[in-house]
Structure formats: C-alpha cells, structure tokens
Specification:
The protein is of the alpha/beta class. Helices cover 29% and strands 15% of the residues. The strands form 5 sheets. A 9-stranded mixed beta sheet has the order 7-6-5-8-1-9-12-4-13. It has a two-stranded antiparallel sheet with strand order 2-3. It has a two-stranded antiparallel ribbon with strand order 10-11. Strand 2 and strand 3 form a beta hairpin.
C-alpha cells in the first residue's frame, strides 16, 4: 500500500516530493553517478560547533490542519473551532488535540512552533519553500535541506548521506537544485512490513545485487574495468565517465560491501513490541528504518505520510486515518531516540507545506492557509517541553514570535554546525547563501 495519494487538489504529485533516477548497478552507470556526486562536493568554510549530526524529516504531504493538532482552538467561535477537545500534555500549560494522546506523553521532549507562517498557499511552491528554506524563484532552483546536508556533512564510507522512503517519480521538490544530481536523495524502495528485511523489506534503489549477480562477480568486473581504464590514460581525464573512475567504482563497491546499510534494513533485529509501537505500516516501518539508518551514519532521511489535503471531511480523516498513524509513529520515534541516547544528536522535524483555514467550509473541511501553521521539532539541542509563539484567538495569524520556513531551516543548520550564511556556488560560479533571509531562532535553542 502506498503512503501517498497520487495527487493533491492542484494535481501536484505527492510522489514527486522527492525523486532520484535509478542508478544501474552493473556497468558504468553507478560509478558515473558517484563521479557526479564527488565532482559536485565542496567543503563549507563557515562551521559552527556541531550539536546535531542527523535529521529525520516526517513530512505531512498536502498541508496538515495544525489548528486541529498542535494549536487547537476550543474557545474559538463555532465555524472555526474544530470537533476535537484539547487535552493536557505532560508539560504544564501545553495542550494538544485529543487525537494526539501519545504525543501528549512526550511533549516534554519536543518544541512546538505555533507561530510559523508564510504567504504561498499552493502545494508545489509551498513545499519548495518549506524543504529548501528559500522562497522559490524561477531564476534558481535551490537545493533541499537534505541535499545541503549531503554536501556539507561528512558521511561514513558505505552509507548514503541523504535518503527518502517514498516511492517517487520525477519532480523538483526535495532535489539538489543548483548543487547538481550528485546530491539528490537515494530512494529507499520496499515497504518494510515483512518479517525480515529480505521479505518485502527496504533496499536502496540501484544499489542492490539481484540474485543473478554476486559481489565476487562484481569485484571481478571491477578489476576488468580497471584494466580498460588504464587504456584511457591518454583521453581527456575531465570527462564525467573517465575522471577518477577507480575512485568512484571503489565507492560503489563500498556501498555494496557495507554492513551498515544492510543491517539498518534488517528490521527483524528490533523487538516485535517496538516495531508494533512504530506502526506495522509502510509509514511506521519507514520511520523505524530511518532511525536505524541515522544510527548507521545517514545524515538526512525523509519519510512521508500523505493525505492531509482535507478540503472535505477533515475531522473524519483526522480521527479515523491520519492522526492514529502520526500520533503512534512520531511518539515512538521520539521516545526511541531518547531511550537510545540519540535524541541529543538527531533532529526530528514534523511539518507539511502549509496549514488549513481557520474557517470550516461547507464540506466540513478546511482549505489552504499559509498565514498560520505549526511544526514540531525535537532533539539536536532544541528546547524540550516548549511552545514557541502563538496565534490569535481564531488561529488566523501569528500573535507572538512569528517565524518563517527559512528561519526554521537556518536554526536546524545552526544546530548541525553549519553557519546559515555559508555561501555555495552554482555551476556557473555564482555565490549563493544557504538561506537568503532566514534567521536563527534563538528562543528555540536549549
């Protein structure tokens, strides 16, 4: 079962949220991809003390009605207040909607940003803003946060730096933009719900040996290619195919040899009770695998849960389908990271592209609304048991401490030890600051 509905109300493919072309394992395709990656890499000059090492983005595709989740308005007039009551969390003074009972019990480990806003109520461009930290422009395609992490953070040998668990096709959201295709995400395929990793388990697209070819045979082919490569010594060594072919082929083999990635996909190594806590679904098991990959050294992992474009019957969708999945899986992730001592070094972000209208429409739904929304941040040095900012009594707009997507992105990278004003270069040599307008949100930092 797919995690994502095919399209939202604008025809924007949620499967397009992140994409990377398949890399052929055999022959020269994978080394050429790795060549592009290595050729694109540059080291950032402005480095801060690093508090976090990895990020897990739980993406709520379609625009979640955060007014019925993290910023409930039970005292608002009829037609604005939703059907859900507020419940106390384990932090005095902070309440969530009653559909989040498990998250209420880990509220002491998270920050809820209730004053997030922007001005783009359209799925595609809003998703670009939220996932790049830069307002979209026709002049330049900005890289996703995952692509920036892939470029600027060191990753252990044999581990993909940036992964997504969605079954995706071509698109620009979540892509590497001006950094080039070498920084696109590695797509994780499979559903993870089998008893073992090899049965309906996860795998990295294009970097998996099928049953017809062994690693030993690939090693032999690698040696043969090295012999051919020596015959290219008089050719132009700057070509993507030839330049550093041995190095890139070695990287390809290291990924295949690596036990780190293989072990991360073996969800059967986890206690059955923990797997059940995450949720025995593609989404839940994807989040669990993301945690295991972070342990292995992956720097940025995205797992998507679609279906939040609730123009009609929003309360039924929240109660019956959306919130039980999110509440169980997100709370399990935060509790699990904390128990393993990983929450200090792992940032969890839960967000969508925008919020929903405070006013309930005639179809018992809420429409697009970017002028007020909320997101959840946990770990990586962020404050715990904290609600940042507020919205007005009807949830129409921020009332205190307003922040924007580029501010959130800047703060995340500050915690990763990367100065938000760091400049990178486009292929034409144009210097570009990581986040054009974002400011670090000091109040969020613990």
């Amino acid at each position: 079962m797919s995690m994502l509905p095919r399209t939202d109300c604008e025809g924007f493919h949620r499967r397009d949220f992140l994409a990377v072309g398949s890399a052929g394992l055999l022959g020269l395709t994978l080394p050429s991809v790795l060549a592009a990656e290595a050729k694109a890499r540059e080291k950032g000059d402005d480095v801060l003390p690093q508090k976090a090492r990895s990020v897990i983005l739980v993406w709520l595709a379609g625009g979640p009605a955060t007014i019925d989740m993290w910023d409930n308005k039970p005292e608002a007039p009829e037609g604005i207040r939703g059907e859900f009551k507020s419940i106390d969390t384990n932090v005095p003074g902070i309440q969530f909607a009653e559909t989040l009972p498990k998250m209420a019990q880990v509220a002491d480990k998270v920050s809820v940003v209730r004053s997030l806003y922007h001005t783009i109520p359209s799925h595609g461009p809003a998703a670009v803003f939220m996932t790049t930290g830069n307002k979209p422009t026709a002049a330049l395609q900005y890289p996703s946060l995952g692509s920036l992490a892939s470029k600027l953070l060191k990753t252990p040998v044999g581990v993909p730096p940036y992964v997504t668990f969605s079954d995706l096709r071509n698109g620009t959201v979540g892509q590497a933009g001006y950094l080039g295709t070498g920084y696109n995400p590695f797509v994780i395929e499979g559903n993870g719900t089998g008893a073992r990793a090899g049965a309906n388990g996860f795998r990295v697209r294009g970097i998996t040996l099928d049953g017809r070819f062994t690693l030993d045979e690939l090693e032999k082919r690698d040696q043969l290619l090295k012999k051919f490569d020596r015959g290219f010594s008089q050719l132009d060594r700057s070509s993507d195919l030839v330049d550093g072919l041995d190095t890139f082929h070695k990287q390809a083999l290291e990924i295949l040899r690596s036990d780190r990635t293989k072990k991360a996909f073996d969800l059967a190594a986890e206690r059955p009770a923990l797997r059940e806590a995450y949720g025995v679904s593609q989404f839940g098991q994807g989040v669990l695998a993301a945690r295991r990959l972070v342990e292995a050294g992956v720097r940025f992992a995205t797992v998507s849960l679609g279906g939040w474009d609730t123009h009609s019957q929003t309360f039924k969708a929240h109660k019956d389908r959306l919130m039980p999945q999110l509440d169980g899986t997100l709370s399990a992730l935060i509790r699990d990271l904390a128990e393993r001592g990983l929450l200090d070094t792992t940032i969890v972000m839960c967000a969508g592209e925008f919020g929903r209208t405070p006013k309930v429409n005639k179809n018992s739904g809420r429409d697009h609304w970017a002028r007020s929304m909320a997101c959840v941040l946990a770990g990586g040095g962020f404050k715990r048991g904290y609600a940042h900012g507020s919205t007005d009594s009807s949830g129409m707009a921020p009332a205190t401490d307003p922040v924007t997507p580029d501010d959130v992105a800047s703060t995340i990278f500050h915690q990763l030890g990367i100065e938000p004003t760091t400049e990178l270069q486009t292929p034409t040599g144009r210097p570009v600051q990581l986040f054009r307008e974002g400011k670090v949100i000091e109040k969020l930092i613990g």
